[in-house]
Design goal:
Strand content: 5-15%
CATH class of the largest domain: Alpha Beta
Structural class: alpha/beta
Number of domains: 2
Largest sheet: 7 strands, mixed
Helix content: 40-55%
Number of strands: 13
CATH architecture of the largest domain: 3-Layer(aba) Sandwich
Order of helices and strands: HHHHEEEEHEEHHEEHHEEHHHEEEHHHHH
């Protein structure tokens, strides 16, 4: 994330913002200080009442599936997205479920960790030795009996685009659960697991279903040559398989549910998706204090829908701790797309957050 914001600073300079004395330093000052990240990195499970208190009795098992692919193209590292596994894991565990972690090859799967994008729950996941042992010894998909699970959750990460679509074990797991009236879920690039799932009646699982996933706009903005690197663009493939693709705002929460099929657009959709999985299994999700990231997402959605004044009012009216860095990231996105008014508005909101904090 910090690398992206540095790119923003360069972009702003090119656009002329840098001509204003001190503009660059001012934008940098909007970043949280080092102590903020040091404190987050030290988070342990014992610091999370949501996970440790008032946990229901055992309700069954949920299967989380991650990619085994560590490279895309010739030299670009990839893997599963850490935040997409960690956040859903905590929701499932806090609501009384055990979580098994599996991958196509089994063993230790490759992971993508962006430290500046992470919050307390993400670091607590990393800091728990038992969980990390479970991840490092992921179950090979060939050894999975889908009848043992109440739901499957396909974790995102760009590696999924290579080893999920044609994996027969994935197809068997998704089809078995879906046809047995159990929940099939996926987030970001995770829906790549579903593109070749054919039901016993000959229909594709995705046919005529409302589905979300990483959009073409999101993909091509980050990776302009994505069409050359990936076997397909996920949005295009989902639509080709008959899905009714539901796209939300770029890099903000969007979750679609069509019966037992629950899908999310990107990492910012994980919390809501995981809680919808719990509800669809048949339980009221446990009450949870929203994270600073979620409050920031809500603020950005208010801005996109109702404008700057509404966002400013929301910011001042709610004494919550927003994740300032996410506001800055969206300011960066606006600047890089030459939406200068939006960029200025979001930088102003970030500045107000700094003052209020």
């Amino acid at each position: 994330m910090l690398k992206k914001i540095i790119i923003t600073l360069v972009t702003l300079t090119v656009l002329g913002f840098g001509l204003v004395t001190g503009a660059k330093s001012w934008v940098k000052s909007l970043l949280p200080d080092k102590a903020h990240f040091v404190a987050l990195k030290a988070t342990k499970v014992s610091d999370l009442p949501y996970v440790t208190k008032n946990v229901p009795d055992y309700r069954g098992k949920i299967l989380a599936v991650v990619t085994s692919v560590d490279k895309m193209g010739e030299d670009k590292a990839t893997g599963y997205e850490h935040t997409e596994l960690a956040r859903a894991y905590w929701v499932f565990v806090a609501n009384g479920f055990d979580v098994d972690i599996a991958s196509p090859k089994g063993g230790k799967p490759p992971v993508v960790i962006d430290g500046e994008d992470m919050g307390a729950y993400d670091f607590a996941f990393l800091n728990d030795e038992a969980i990390q042992q479970k991840v490092a010894n992921s179950i090979a998909l060939v050894d999975i009996d889908p009848n043992e699970y109440e739901a499957v959750y396909f974790v995102g990460g760009k590696g999924t685009m290579f080893d999920f679509p044609d994996n027969l074990d994935i197809q068997h797991i998704a089809k078995t659960l879906y046809q047995n009236n159990k929940v099939v879920s996926a987030v970001c690039h995770g829906p790549a697991a579903l593109v070749n799932v054919e039901l016993d009646n000959g229909e594709m699982l995705l046919a005529n279903k409302q589905v979300s996933g990483f959009t073409n706009d999101e993909e091509l903005f980050l990776i302009p040559d994505a069409k050359k690197i990936f076997p397909f663009l996920l949005e295009d493939k989902l639509v080709a398989q008959g899905a009714k693709f539901q796209a939300g705002t770029k890099y903000l929460e969007k979750v679609s549910q069509d019966g037992k099929l629950i899908t999310g657009q990107n990492p910012w959709s994980v919390w809501t998706l995981a809680e919808k999985v719990i509800a669809e299994i048949g339980y009221q999700p446990k009450v949870r204090e929203r994270t600073p990231e979620e409050y920031a997402v809500e603020l950005l959605m208010t801005y996109n829908t109702n404008g700057f004044d509404a966002a400013k009012h929301e910011l001042r009216a709610q004494p919550h701790q927003y994740q300032r860095i996410l506001i800055l990231m969206h300011g960066m996105l606006a600047a890089m797309q030459f939406e200068l008014g939006k960029a200025i508005d979001l930088l102003s909101l970030a500045n107000q957050l700094k003052q209020l904090s």
